[in-house]
Amino acid sequence: MDIVFHWLLLTVAVAVGWFVGRLGGGRRRSGKKIADEDSVKDRLQFLFTNYSDQAVDNFVQSLAVNTDTVSLHLSIGRHFRNKGETDRAILVHQNLLARPELPPRFSPQVTLELAMDFLNAGLLDRAEALLQELMGDKEYGRKAAQQLIELYQQESEWGKAADVARALTKNDADPGMFKDLAYLTCELAEKTLALDDRWAAQKLAKEALGYDRSCVRATLILMKILVRQGSFRDAGNQGLKVFDQNPDFGPEAIDRLMKLEHEHGDIGRLVKKLRKLYETYPSTSLLLALVESVERVSGRPVAIDLLRRELEIRPSMRGLLRLVEMAGYEKGVTTDEGRLVSRIGLMILANRPVYRCVSCGFSGQQLHWLCPSCKQWETVRPIQGVEAE
Ligand SMILES: [Zn+2]
Fold first, then answer.
1. Lateral strand order in the sheet of 363-364
2. 147: CA distance to ligand 1 center in Å?
3. Fewer beta carbons below 10 Å: N end or C end of the chain?
4. Which pLDDT band, with edges at 50, 70 and 90, does 36 fall under?
């Protein structure tokens, strides 16, 4: 055994000894727990950066497996996984599971770590099998189920994901899980609607609202079904519900409502509704819709007055561009300055994201019901502010 490896073992022995000491005194020094864990991570990091992977592998093989060292094995496995070296992480965790000395109570935790390695390596079948095995576990069953839902979502297996989510909602009342279940059911409803099975789609959308009555997407699906059935008034009423469910999504409903009223509606009734909605949930989309309908009922000068007044209170780039355009039409001339403002304004807006995830900050110009970055439902919303809503 070379000198470097001796040094390595010595360093780790100190780390392990200290780590074990921490476990023994954990109750007395619980206030320091987080700092202690950070310190263990630092020591491991020192190990990983100063010694070759082969030396670390040899060390893992030679390190005893017992109650006191399992955490160290797991930290090393996790380190490899985080570094993207999933093959090594898999070896560490498989090695642990194969060792007869592994205390049985640690087996579910190690199995979960191994499943995460498989997930990271893209070995989804193997991850799925392990996660299903863990589903009934008291301590790790919930975490396994959440990972399983994520895996099925990745595969667009909405039905299977919904089954797991449903099983979870039976045991606890976490509102987040009911939201997930509602959105998974909406995916099934959309799939059914694509096959033009309106009856089944409607049943699924209502089921989604049963899980979470604030599920905006279910309401928009019901609206779409009613439009297809020719029930335009009911569709309009359905669209209005979005404002009560989550006013952040109002702009999504307003585009659909405007199209509906243009084609089938009664404009007088629309102006009244939009005015009331705008008072309660002011947004640029709503203001522009209101201005458009006021223009149709009372003429352009009244609409321009309204827009100018509201922009003083609640400035917005889209509103300003609309005002420049309307004022130009009204005067029968579009000035060079007006044209320039419009052109530059449109250029600014063209490169701006329209939606942003309230949870992770992911942004883009397209609405994703499931955030592509943090994988949460309904967190990607229309952006508020001068350059947006
Ligand atoms: Zn996100």
1. 363-364, 355-357, 380-382
2. 17
3. N
4. low
Determine which helix (DSSP H) or strand (DSSP E) holds 80, and give its type and residue range: helix 70-82
- The pLDDT tens digits for 14-26 are 455 444 444 433 3
Distance between CA 380 and CA 370 in Å, rounded?
Answer: 7
Query: Degrees (nearest 5) of the Cα angle 71, 73, 78?
Result: 90
Closest CA to 321 of 293, 345, 288: 345
Question: Does position 343 have pLDDT exceeding 50, yes or no?
Answer: yes
Q: Is there a contact between 308 and 274 (Cβ–Cβ < 8 Å)?
A: no
Euclidean distance between CA atoms 75 and 68, whole angstroms: 13
CA of 366 to the centre of ligand 1 (A): 13
Radius of gyration (Cα) for the chain, nearest Å? 29
- CA 47–ligand 1 middle distance (angstroms): 34
Distance 9 CA to ligand 1 centre (A): 42
pLDDT tens digits, one per residue of 74-94? 888 988 898 888 988 998 899
pTM of full prediction above 0.90: no
> Ligand 1: distance of its center to the CA of 31 in Å?
32
Q: How far is the CA of 314 from the centre of ligand 1 (A)?
A: 28
Question: And the tokens for 91?
Answer: 């070896």
Helices (H), 155-231: 158-171, 175-194, 198-211, 216-229
Given a contact cutoff of 8 angstroms between Cβ atoms, the answer to whether 162 and 184 are in contact is yes
- What's the CA gap between 110 and 92, in Å, rounded? 10
Q: How far is the CA of 266 from the centre of ligand 1 (A)?
A: 39
The neighbour count for residue 146, using CB atoms within 10 Å, is 17
